[in-house]
Automatic annotation (TrEMBL):
Tree of life domain: Bacteria
Record protein name field: Uncharacterized protein
Keywords linked to the UniProt accession: Signal
Short name of one Pfam family: DUF6520
Organism: Flavobacterium frigoris
Classification lineage: Bacteria, Pseudomonadati, Bacteroidota, Flavobacteriia, Flavobacteriales
Amino acid sequence: MKANFIKQVIPVAVFALAVAGAFTTNAMNVRSKTVATVQGYVKLNPQGTSCEQRDMCSTINNGNICTVGLVPGATPLFAKNSANQCTVTVYRP
């Protein structure tokens, strides 16, 4: 009787674990798609008070600075701060 109980419970437990894994994976995918994209601007002066709109960038630090055309080594882009100055570092989406 104990062997029958184990044979019936193990498949149910494995199925429950698989369902839990699927929900966890789906939640991670949904979160990764909610990256905060912001408009990237080129600084036209060192103070960042004059800017030119360019490409979309991300606020999530992934180690890759957002640049014009998303080309590595090109002119870096910045987001505007609360004072409307282009001084906030942004990253590649």
